[in-house]
């Protein structure tokens, strides 16, 4: 645990921790020596030798004074080390969360990450003071007492020494059980947090369908599992401490039996017997304490592992000298990709010429959004290459890719701020004029007109005061303001009202303006207006590719797909003269 803590903190934190450990060792030894000195003091006191007793008493007072000074220094170092550990962990986790590949966030890790970044980090910062210090004392003081007991009376010392392996085995047993119970508990807490966050997020959808019994059951099950895991942790801790206390008390009884036997045989004076019994009790006191702390050590160790695990999450490879893209053309070259063991895209190859628009269509689950994620470098493909401007994304580096690409996803998240502030995220340095210009081109001005407060109206948490289509228009305005050469657009699947439909059509037209656009298209206008259409099939490969006119003329899968959609939408194409 000490090694894990030292690895997680800064050089200053390491110095403070080593200082703390040094003072703890000194105070624990001094405490043990004080207990040992009690023996000659009590023996001479009971024997009526006041002068010798006074000498030992002075020794005890000196030990107590030195102990007090070193303890105070240790307390200060412990507090400073705790603050340093907290600060350095928050800094490192903050940096890590920014560096983690975006794909890490695509799977719902929010509960686990929130638990580590809040409860875990705060607990870790208390470890130097609340766990490390008492646990070291609980081992070093009895060890000093044991050495003293062996020197004073080897038979009593040997009795104590024989108990040590039994106590150690018992301690290991408790720690292992507590570590396992804590792992289950942490998993249950992470799961329950994720479920509660998810439940809050999907409230609008749930209220829309009227019956949220299934979602409520999922949350209730997760909370019940967390409760059960918490109970198991408590029971494991309570049982362990009870068993450990009983084993330690048996040690005192063994000393009492051996001591009484020696006293009855005349080998041990009454004063020495009393003093050695006091010593045995002093030996067991800190050891009993270690039983209760064993669980804390196991939990602390697990927590430090979890924090280290998050810090060690693999990042995507980044170039030392990023390559320069020649333009904004996108190329997929025999790309295969899957989430875990589940393959999604297979040997996918296509090109999107710079400045053109490609619409991706295909059945649900065929991997359309995954293509968008690969271009934004949420993940690197398992095989094959994704390139922009002739350079593979790992050679361009995540920063450059992020600067070149403006994604507009289906589930747009808006901050609970004004519409203007939400658009400005696209380019925080942009002038007010530029922000308003981008907003108008994405027809966000109509949304501002509708809201009380206009441009200064707050959009609510996650953008809840706006409709899905409106949120996507704000997101398109962000992309326009960013002036990135590539726009990735995952069109909302939900049916849009007439106003939003027209506004999105205008916004998409505004976005195209010389940019390279890849759009997961659901609206017929977007599909028909694209320079190139890629039709994916269920197995994650390109089934057909071409312009709308070419694919319709071919009369294949795309033509069937198109005709079904046109019939469903009641659409009619007006023949061109
Ligand atoms: N983060 C993820 N982890 C695991 N599997 C995922 C993840 N994201 C998507 N998938 C799975 O990968 C497959 C392709 O998903 P993707 O979202 O790319 O499809 P899509 O064609 O965009 O679907 P839709 O039209 O329904 O949005 C699906 O089977 C989906 O369940």
From TrEMBL:
<dbReference type="GO" id="GO:0034040">
    <property type="term" value="F:ATPase-coupled lipid transmembrane transporter activity"/>
</dbReference>
<keyword id="KW-0067">ATP-binding</keyword>
<keyword id="KW-0547">Nucleotide-binding</keyword>
<comment type="similarity">
    <text>Belongs to the ABC transporter superfamily. Siderophore-Fe(3+) uptake transporter (SIUT) (TC 3.A.1.21) family.</text>
</comment>
<feature type="domain" description="ABC transporter">
    <location>
        <begin position="330"/>
        <end position="564"/>
    </location>
</feature>
<dbReference type="GO" id="GO:0140359">
    <property type="term" value="F:ABC-type transporter activity"/>
</dbReference>
<feature type="domain" description="ABC transmembrane type-1">
    <location>
        <begin position="18"/>
        <end position="287"/>
    </location>
</feature>
<dbReference type="Pfam" id="PF00005">
    <property type="entry name" value="ABC_tran"/>
</dbReference>
<feature type="transmembrane region" description="Helical">
    <location>
        <begin position="156"/>
        <end position="174"/>
    </location>
</feature>
<dbReference type="GO" id="GO:0016887">
    <property type="term" value="F:ATP hydrolysis activity"/>
</dbReference>
<protein>
    <submittedName>
        <fullName>ATP-binding cassette subfamily B protein</fullName>
    </submittedName>
</protein>
<dbReference type="Pfam" id="PF00664">
    <property type="entry name" value="ABC_membrane"/>
</dbReference>
<keyword id="KW-1003">Cell membrane</keyword>
<keyword id="KW-0472">Membrane</keyword>
<dbReference type="GO" id="GO:0005886">
    <property type="term" value="C:plasma membrane"/>
</dbReference>
<feature type="transmembrane region" description="Helical">
    <location>
        <begin position="232"/>
        <end position="255"/>
    </location>
</feature>
<keyword id="KW-0812">Transmembrane</keyword>
<dbReference type="InterPro" id="IPR027417">
    <property type="entry name" value="P-loop_NTPase"/>
</dbReference>
<feature type="transmembrane region" description="Helical">
    <location>
        <begin position="53"/>
        <end position="71"/>
    </location>
</feature>
<feature type="transmembrane region" description="Helical">
    <location>
        <begin position="20"/>
        <end position="47"/>
    </location>
</feature>
<keyword id="KW-0813">Transport</keyword>
<keyword id="KW-1133">Transmembrane helix</keyword>
<dbReference type="InterPro" id="IPR003439">
    <property type="entry name" value="ABC_transporter-like_ATP-bd"/>
</dbReference>
<dbReference type="InterPro" id="IPR011527">
    <property type="entry name" value="ABC1_TM_dom"/>
</dbReference>
<dbReference type="InterPro" id="IPR036640">
    <property type="entry name" value="ABC1_TM_sf"/>
</dbReference>
<keyword id="KW-0997">Cell inner membrane</keyword>
<feature type="transmembrane region" description="Helical">
    <location>
        <begin position="129"/>
        <end position="150"/>
    </location>
</feature>
<dbReference type="InterPro" id="IPR003593">
    <property type="entry name" value="AAA+_ATPase"/>
</dbReference>
<dbReference type="GO" id="GO:0005524">
    <property type="term" value="F:ATP binding"/>
</dbReference>
<dbReference type="InterPro" id="IPR039421">
    <property type="entry name" value="Type_1_exporter"/>
</dbReference>
<dbReference type="InterPro" id="IPR017871">
    <property type="entry name" value="ABC_transporter-like_CS"/>
</dbReference>
């Amino acid at each position: 645990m000490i090694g894990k803590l030292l690895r997680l903190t800064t050089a200053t934190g390491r110095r403070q921790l080593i200082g703390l450990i040094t003072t703890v060792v000194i105070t624990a030894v001094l405490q043990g020596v004080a207990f040992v000195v009690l023996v000659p003091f009590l023996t001479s006191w009971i024997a009526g030798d006041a002068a010798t007793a006074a000498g030992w008493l002075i020794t005890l007072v000196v030990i107590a004074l030195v102990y007090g000074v070193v303890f105070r220094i240790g307390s200060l170092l412990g507090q400073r080390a705790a603050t340093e550990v907290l600060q350095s962990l928050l800094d490192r986790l903050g940096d890590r969360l920014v560096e983690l590949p975006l794909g890490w966030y695509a799977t719902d890790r929010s509960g686990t990450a929130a638990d580590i970044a809040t409860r875990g980090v705060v607990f870790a910062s208390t470890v130097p003071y609340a766990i490390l210090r008492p646990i070291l004392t609980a081992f070093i003081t009895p060890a000093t007492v044991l050495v003293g007991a062996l020197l004073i009376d080897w038979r009593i010392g040997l009795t104590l020494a024989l108990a040590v392996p039994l106590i150690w085995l018992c301690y290991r047993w408790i720690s292992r059980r507590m570590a396992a119970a804590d792992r289950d508990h942490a998993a249950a807490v992470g799961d329950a947090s994720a479920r509660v966050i998810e439940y809050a997020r999907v409230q609008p959808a749930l209220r829309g369908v009227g019956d949220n019994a299934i979602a409520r059951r999922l949350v209730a099950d997760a909370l019940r599992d967390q409760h059960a895991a918490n109970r198991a942790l408590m029971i494991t801790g309570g049982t362990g401490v009870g068993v450990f206390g009983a084993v330690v008390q048996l040690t005192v009884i063994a000393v009492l039996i051996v001591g009484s036997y020696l006293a009855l045989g005349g080998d041990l004076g009454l004063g020495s017997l009393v003093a050695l019994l006091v010593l045995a009790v002093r030996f067991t006191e800190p050891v009993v304490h270690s039983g209760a702390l064993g669980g804390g050590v196991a939990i602390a160790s697990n927590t430090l592992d979890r924090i280290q695990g998050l810090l060690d999450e693999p990042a995507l490879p980044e170039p030392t000298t990023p390559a320069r893209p020649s333009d904004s053309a996108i190329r997929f070259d025999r790309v295969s990709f899957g989430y875990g063991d589940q393959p999604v895209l297979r040997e996918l190859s296509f090109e999107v010429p710079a400045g053109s628009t490609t619409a991706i269509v295909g059945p649900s689950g065929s991997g359309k959004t995954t293509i968008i994620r690969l271009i934004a470098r949420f993940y690197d493909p398992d095989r094959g290459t994704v390139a922009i401007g002739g350079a593979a994304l790992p050679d361009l580096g995540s920063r450059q890719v992020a600067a070149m690409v403006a994604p507009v996803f289906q589930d747009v998240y808006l901050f609970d701020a004004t519409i203007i502030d939400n658009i400005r995220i696209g380019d925080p340095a942009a002038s007010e004029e530029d922000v308003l210009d981008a907003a108008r081109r994405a027809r966000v001005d109509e949304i501002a007109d509708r809201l009380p407060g206009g441009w200064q109206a707050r959009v609510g948490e996650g953008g809840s005061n706006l409709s899905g289509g409106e949120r996507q228009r704000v997101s398109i305005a962000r992309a326009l303001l960013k002036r990135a050469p590539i726009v990735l657009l995952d069109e909302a699947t939900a049916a849009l009202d007439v106003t939003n439909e027209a506004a999105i059509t205008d916004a998409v037209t505004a976005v195209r303006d010389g940019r390279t656009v890849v759009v997961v298209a659901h609206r017929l206008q977007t599909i028909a207006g694209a320079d190139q259409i890629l039709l994916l099939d269920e197995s994650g490969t390109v089934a057909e590719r071409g312009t709308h006119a070419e694919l319709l003329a071919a009369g294949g899968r795309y033509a069937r797909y198109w005709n079904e959609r046109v019939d469903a939408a009641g659409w009619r194409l007006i023949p061109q003269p």
